[in-house]
Amino acid sequence: MKFADFILVDAIRTEIKATDKEGVIREMVQSLLDAGGIQESEYEGIVKAIMRREDLGSTGIGRGIAVPHTKHVSVDRLVGTVAISPEGIDFDSLDCEKVNLFFLLVSPPDRPGEHLRALEHITRQLKDDAFCRFLKQSRTREDILHLLDEADNNVYGK
Asked: The whole model's pTM is what?
Protein backbone atom coordinates (compact mmCIF):
# COMPACT_ATOMS: atom_id res chain seq x y z
CA MET A 1 0.00 0.00 0.00
CA LYS A 2 1.13 3.56 -0.70
CA PHE A 3 0.11 7.01 0.51
CA ALA A 4 -1.15 7.68 -3.02
CA ASP A 5 -3.74 4.92 -2.48
CA PHE A 6 -5.60 6.76 0.28
CA ILE A 7 -4.38 10.31 0.97
CA LEU A 8 -6.73 12.86 -0.60
CA VAL A 9 -4.47 15.57 -1.99
CA ASP A 10 -7.07 18.32 -1.56
CA ALA A 11 -7.55 17.36 2.11
CA ILE A 12 -3.90 17.96 3.11
CA ARG A 13 -3.50 20.82 5.58
CA THR A 14 -0.14 22.50 6.13
CA GLU A 15 -1.17 24.53 9.15
CA ILE A 16 -3.80 23.27 11.57
CA LYS A 17 -5.61 26.11 13.32
CA ALA A 18 -7.14 23.98 16.09
CA THR A 19 -5.60 24.05 19.55
CA ASP A 20 -6.93 20.82 21.08
CA LYS A 21 -7.47 17.16 20.19
CA GLU A 22 -11.13 17.36 19.21
CA GLY A 23 -10.51 20.55 17.26
CA VAL A 24 -7.75 18.86 15.24
CA ILE A 25 -9.97 15.89 14.50
CA ARG A 26 -12.85 18.18 13.47
CA GLU A 27 -10.56 20.22 11.23
CA MET A 28 -9.13 17.12 9.56
CA VAL A 29 -12.55 15.52 9.03
CA GLN A 30 -13.72 18.84 7.58
CA SER A 31 -10.78 18.70 5.17
CA LEU A 32 -11.97 15.26 4.03
CA LEU A 33 -15.45 16.69 3.55
CA ASP A 34 -14.11 19.68 1.60
CA ALA A 35 -12.13 17.29 -0.64
CA GLY A 36 -15.20 15.15 -1.35
CA GLY A 37 -13.97 12.14 0.62
CA ILE A 38 -16.94 11.98 2.98
CA GLN A 39 -20.54 13.14 2.92
CA GLU A 40 -21.64 16.21 4.84
CA SER A 41 -24.38 14.23 6.58
CA GLU A 42 -21.73 11.90 8.03
CA TYR A 43 -19.37 14.57 9.40
CA GLU A 44 -20.56 14.41 13.04
CA GLY A 45 -20.77 10.62 13.05
CA ILE A 46 -17.21 10.29 11.82
CA VAL A 47 -15.91 12.82 14.36
CA LYS A 48 -17.70 10.94 17.15
CA ALA A 49 -16.35 7.60 15.95
CA ILE A 50 -12.78 8.94 15.97
CA MET A 51 -13.27 10.46 19.41
CA ARG A 52 -14.61 7.10 20.70
CA ARG A 53 -11.44 5.49 19.34
CA GLU A 54 -9.37 8.13 21.16
CA ASP A 55 -11.23 7.30 24.40
CA LEU A 56 -9.87 3.75 24.12
CA GLY A 57 -6.33 5.09 24.02
CA SER A 58 -4.64 8.03 22.40
CA THR A 59 -3.44 7.63 18.84
CA GLY A 60 -0.70 10.10 19.74
CA ILE A 61 2.09 7.56 19.36
CA GLY A 62 4.97 9.78 20.46
CA ARG A 63 7.75 11.74 18.76
CA GLY A 64 5.26 14.46 17.75
CA ILE A 65 3.03 12.08 15.76
CA ALA A 66 -0.65 11.09 15.94
CA VAL A 67 -2.65 8.77 13.70
CA PRO A 68 -6.34 9.20 14.55
CA HIS A 69 -8.46 6.67 12.69
CA THR A 70 -11.80 4.89 12.56
CA LYS A 71 -13.94 2.59 10.51
CA HIS A 72 -17.28 4.06 9.40
CA VAL A 73 -20.15 2.65 7.37
CA SER A 74 -20.59 5.88 5.41
CA VAL A 75 -17.37 5.52 3.40
CA ASP A 76 -17.01 3.09 0.53
CA ARG A 77 -13.24 3.35 0.30
CA LEU A 78 -10.27 4.16 2.51
CA VAL A 79 -9.68 7.92 2.73
CA GLY A 80 -7.04 9.84 4.61
CA THR A 81 -5.33 13.13 5.06
CA VAL A 82 -2.21 14.68 6.53
CA ALA A 83 -1.99 17.81 8.65
CA ILE A 84 0.81 19.72 10.32
CA SER A 85 0.79 21.91 13.41
CA PRO A 86 4.05 23.88 13.50
CA GLU A 87 3.46 24.83 17.17
CA GLY A 88 2.29 21.40 18.26
CA ILE A 89 -0.93 20.41 20.00
CA ASP A 90 -1.57 18.51 23.23
CA PHE A 91 -3.02 15.21 21.98
CA ASP A 92 -2.59 13.08 25.12
CA SER A 93 0.37 11.40 23.45
CA LEU A 94 2.02 8.38 25.00
CA ASP A 95 5.20 10.40 25.59
CA CYS A 96 3.21 13.46 26.86
CA GLU A 97 4.79 15.63 24.13
CA LYS A 98 2.89 17.91 21.77
CA VAL A 99 1.98 16.58 18.32
CA ASN A 100 3.05 18.24 15.06
CA LEU A 101 2.24 15.54 12.49
CA PHE A 102 -1.22 14.08 12.00
CA PHE A 103 -2.37 11.30 9.67
CA LEU A 104 -6.13 10.68 9.79
CA LEU A 105 -7.81 7.61 8.28
CA VAL A 106 -11.43 6.60 7.74
CA SER A 107 -12.19 3.23 6.19
CA PRO A 108 -15.18 0.98 5.51
CA PRO A 109 -15.80 -1.55 8.32
CA ASP A 110 -15.87 -4.42 5.83
CA ARG A 111 -12.24 -3.87 4.77
CA PRO A 112 -10.19 -4.31 7.95
CA GLY A 113 -7.15 -5.56 6.03
CA GLU A 114 -6.95 -2.38 4.00
CA HIS A 115 -7.26 -0.30 7.19
CA LEU A 116 -4.43 -2.24 8.84
CA ARG A 117 -2.19 -2.02 5.75
CA ALA A 118 -2.64 1.77 5.66
CA LEU A 119 -1.83 2.06 9.37
CA GLU A 120 1.20 -0.17 8.87
CA HIS A 121 2.42 1.93 5.93
CA ILE A 122 2.03 5.15 7.90
CA THR A 123 3.79 3.86 11.01
CA ARG A 124 6.62 2.29 8.98
CA GLN A 125 7.32 5.61 7.24
CA LEU A 126 7.01 7.58 10.47
CA LYS A 127 9.79 5.50 12.04
CA ASP A 128 12.20 7.26 9.69
CA ASP A 129 13.60 10.34 11.44
CA ALA A 130 14.51 12.12 8.19
CA PHE A 131 11.00 11.66 6.78
CA CYS A 132 9.43 13.06 9.97
CA ARG A 133 11.86 15.97 10.16
CA PHE A 134 11.23 16.98 6.55
CA LEU A 135 7.47 16.56 6.96
CA LYS A 136 7.43 18.76 10.08
CA GLN A 137 9.29 21.44 8.09
CA SER A 138 6.87 21.31 5.14
CA ARG A 139 4.97 24.53 4.56
CA THR A 140 3.17 23.78 1.30
CA ARG A 141 0.92 21.00 0.05
CA GLU A 142 3.43 20.41 -2.74
CA ASP A 143 6.21 19.83 -0.18
CA ILE A 144 4.08 17.26 1.61
CA LEU A 145 3.08 15.53 -1.63
CA HIS A 146 6.72 15.35 -2.68
CA LEU A 147 7.67 13.67 0.62
CA LEU A 148 4.75 11.23 0.45
CA ASP A 149 5.74 10.35 -3.11
CA GLU A 150 9.35 9.81 -2.06
CA ALA A 151 8.17 7.58 0.79
CA ASP A 152 5.97 5.62 -1.65
CA ASN A 153 9.05 5.11 -3.82
CA ASN A 154 11.20 3.91 -0.90
CA VAL A 155 13.52 6.91 -0.84
CA TYR A 156 13.61 6.68 2.96
CA GLY A 157 14.60 3.03 2.93
CA LYS A 158 11.76 1.64 5.02
From this structure: 0.93
